[in-house]
Automatic annotation (TrEMBL):
Pfam families: DapB_N, Gp_dh_C. NAD(+) binds at D53. It comes from Catonella morbi ATCC 51271. The keyword Glycoprotein does not apply. GO terms for cellular component: cytoplasm. One of its GO terms (biological process) is lysine biosynthetic process via diaminopimelate. Keywords: NAD, NADP, Nucleotide-binding, Oxidoreductase. It comes from the Bacteria. GO terms for molecular function: 4-hydroxy-tetrahydrodipicolinate reductase; NAD binding; NADP binding; oxidoreductase activity, acting on the aldehyde or oxo group of donors, NAD or NADP as acceptor. Residues 22-162 form the Glyceraldehyde 3-phosphate dehydrogenase NAD(P) binding domain. The keyword NADP applies. This is Glyceraldehyde-3-phosphate dehydrogenase, type II. The active site is at C162.
Length: 368
């Protein structure tokens, strides 16, 4: 990789201390790209330089209506006139943006990121790809908690999918505390994101062949754990639910597991008695909290779903598919750019700037 065309920007933070900012670009301003842009903009030690897209989509139109808080650059093959004829200003091309940044977050449609990688290599720019790309696009298949150290200093990282990201949070939480040998999962998968009409409207469930890729991906990130799983597509849009059966190196008791889950900043422990009856409850709660787009960065875990069965423990988690990978992607920036050299420091900063875990300890604990 070529290096370093320009030094990182040095600025003062809110406390008056000097700090180095990493300059970040986002390719693809869709479901994930919008949220990546917002997430990076919230990091005090990063600067969002701009975003890239191909056409004046609804997301781009909304960006314009909000006053263009982020500079817009065109993807390769885009027509400048398609933006400018409706008044949307364009700063330049993706190549212009690449020349200004230290790292790109590529949230382009599956396959496009691999093509964009050629541009990143040519210009000596690091990049992080989302779960839709093939693993071969990256040096490391990355998760902010489970294998942060493997991403340090690497040029190209690839994030796990939304389901796998949330699943690994829970599995890693138990593995660090107790050790995990096996995990078996059933994924009740939303069929599409809100607004994805091209997916079709259905009144049926569809099952995939086992094992699901999420189980295989978990074993790639955490090779010491054996995993398998079944995935069922469901005609809903607000989040996935995963049931997990975990076999530890020794028996994991419900009380001990619950205590570990409650300590994890990216896991929100809830109960059905509180009103969290399903996937839509989390989406509504995010809206009630005033979160942008109703997003939740944390996975939800039902305390009253935790049961012991023999030497195994079972529980259910909710995956907010549109936002769950954002924290781990920002962790990836920290690793690739050598900003923090251990998982604890990196994830705690990401959590701080995104406001993750602020709810911990706010409510008195009830029985479950």
């Amino acid at each position: 990789m070529k290096k370093d065309k320009r030094p990182f920007e040095v600025t003062k933070n809110k406390g008056g201390c000097f700090m180095t900012k990493v300059r970040v670009g986002v390719a693809g301003y869709g479901t994930i790209g919008q949220r990546l842009a917002d997430g990076v903009a919230m990091q005090e030690d990063m600067e969002l330089v701009g975003v890239v897209d191909f056409a004046p989509t609804l997301a781009i139109r909304a960006l314009y209506e909000k006053g263009m808080p982020y500079d817009l650059y065109m993807a390769e093959g885009a027509e400048r006139s398609s933006f400018e004829e409706i008044g949307i200003p364009v700063k330049g091309t993706i190549n212009d943006l690449i020349d200004k940044v230290d790292i790109m977050l590529d949230a382009s449609p599956a396959g496009v990121g691999a093509k964009n990688k050629e541009l990143y290599i040519k210009e000596g720019i690091k990049a992080i790809f989302q779960g839709g790309e093939k693993n071969e696009v990256a040096d490391v298949f990355f998760h902010g908690y489970a294998n942060y150290e493997k991403g340090i200093g690497k040029d190209y990282l690839k994030l796990t999918s939304c389901n796998t990201t949330g699943l690994i949070r829970a599995a890693d939480c138990l593995d660090r505390a107790f050790g995990v040998d096996n995990i078996a999962i059933t994924i009740i998968r939303r069929v599409a994101d809100p607004g994805d009409y091209h997916r079709g409207l259905t009144d049926a469930l569809r099952i995939d062949k086992a094992p699901s890729h999420q189980a295989v991906d978990l074993m790639t990130i955490m090779p010491h754990i054996r995993a398998t799983g079944i995935l069922v597509h469901t005609p809903v849009t607000y989040g996935h639910i995963i049931t997990c059966v975990v076999h530890g190196k020794s028996k994991i008791e419900k009380k001990s597991a619950l205590a570990e889950f409650e300590k994890h900043p990216r896991i929100r422990v809830v109960t059905t008695d509180e009103g969290f009856l399903g996937n839509a409850s989390f989406f509504k709660y995010g809206r009630d909290l005033g979160h942008c787009r109703g997003d939740n960065y944390e996975i939800g875990l039902w305390a009253d779903s935790i049961v012991e069965i023999g030497d195994d423990i079972m529980f259910a988690i909710n995956i907010p598919q549109e936002a769950v990978t954002i924290p781990e992607t920002i962790d990836g920036i920290r690793a690739a750019m050598n900003m923090q050299l251990n998982m604890e420091d990196a994830t705690s900063l990401t959590n701080k700037y995104l406001g993750i875990g602020r709810f911990k300890g706010m409510f008195k604990k009830g029985k479950c």
